[in-house]
UniProtKB/TrEMBL annotation:
Organism annotation: Anaerosporomusa subterranea
Domain FAD/NAD(P)-binding stretches: 2-278
Domain of life, per lineage: Bacteria
Recorded GO MF terms: oxidoreductase activity, acting on a sulfur group of donors, NAD(P) as acceptor
Coiled-coil boundaries: none
InterPro entries: FAD/NAD-bd_sf (IPR036188), FAD/NAD-binding_dom (IPR023753), Ferredoxin-NADP_redctase_2 (IPR050097), Pyr_nucl-diS_OxRdtase_2_AS (IPR008255)
Keywords, comma-separated and alphabetical: Disulfide bond, FAD, Flavoprotein, Oxidoreductase, Redox-active center
Pfam families the UniProt entry points to: Pyr_redox_2
Protein name stated in the entry: Thioredoxin-disulfide reductase
């Protein structure tokens, strides 16, 4: 029986276990990796203390700090979270393990949203990618498309424009990105913006060959883009399905109050999996510290 179970090893989860360990809580971190979404990020310029750092570099610093404390880490996929009759919690993993804890912090983050068009699933890993930082260098000198309208999509397009021959930035909706990032698009002559277009199909036999799009609401007016890669950046889905006991909003985000508390006593949440309005590394880390401190306070009253 652990004092605290932390689910998720991104900035929120790793910060939470550091704070918990400093409070001498017997803590277990269950995660598929250490770093989460930040591992896909190349350029970070707004994390305090670093004028510039890459995602993997920053997460390596987080991991180094976690390793300084006696925290148990299990690299497993959580599939079920249950609350027991005695008030404790049980976590079940895809690997067949079960772990018990007196309190839980959900810090499971989000995962990429798919386009759900023909050819996407079949060509994933063969030209269809959800991580420009991971796979971008493989497309040096080629033509690629980036799909999306937020910061991640525009940053991916800029990153790819530095290595690819041609980049098409396809957006269905108006940009919802920082003005400074939108302005940077103009610096790349090999980057073409295609606005108000939807995805129709991705075609290829052994790898991506064509990406078919059409103007919003006019599927009969298809346009064929000859590309070797399609980078999907259309948002994220909360990793919260395993926690069906907790109250979530229409997007699947876990609803929390200002003290990281959910509607279940002893169950807290932090980071991108919550209904917090902004998804930022520094906010996730702050959420993780707050959740750990509030969980510690909760456990004090259980003893």
């Amino acid at each position: 029986m652990f004092d605290l179970l932390v689910i998720g090893g991104g900035p929120a989860g790793m910060t939470a276990v550091v704070y918990a360990a400093r409070k001498k809580l017997n803590t277990l971190l269950v995660t598929q990796d250490l770093g989460g979404q930040v591992l896909w990020t190349r350029d970070i310029q707004n994390y305090m203390g670093y004028q510039f750092v890459t995602g993997p570099e920053l997460m390596a610093k987080f991991e180094e700090q976690v390793r300084m404390f006696p925290v148990t880490v299990k690299y497993e996929d959580v599939v079920k979270l249950e609350k027991m009759s005695d008030g404790s919690f049980t976590v079940r993993t895809a690997e067949g393990a079960e772990y018990q804890g007196k309190a839980v912090i959900l810090a499971s983050g989000k995962r990429p949203r798919r386009l759900n068009v023909p050819g996407e699933t079949e060509l994933t890993g063969m030209g269809v990618s959800y991580c420009a930082t991971c796979d971008g260098p493989l497309f040096a000198g080629m033509s690629v498309a980036v799909v999306g309208s937020g910061n991640s999509a525009l940053q991916a397009a800029i990153e790819l424009a530095n290595v690819a021959k041609q980049v098409y930035l396809v957006s269905r909706d108006p940009y919802i990105a920082d003005p400074i990032i939108i302005e940077m698009l103009e610096k790349y002559p090999n980057l073409e913006e295609i606005k108000e277009h939807e995805s129709k199909e991705i075609i290829g036999k052994y790898s991506v060959e064509q990406y078919i799009i059409h103007p919003n609401g006019r599927p009969e007016q298809s346009r064929e883009l000859s590309v070797q890669g399609v980078f999907v950046e259309v948002g994220l889905i909360p990793n919260s399905e395993f926690a069906d006991l907790v109250e979530r909003n229409e997007f699947g985000e876990v609803i929390v109050d200002c003290r990281a508390r959910t509607n279940i006593e002893g169950l807290f949440a932090a980071g991108d999996v919550t209904d917090g309005p902004d998804k930022q590394i520094v906010i996730a880390a702050g959420d993780g510290s707050k959740a750990a401190l509030v969980a510690y306070e909760y456990l004090l009253h259980q003893r």
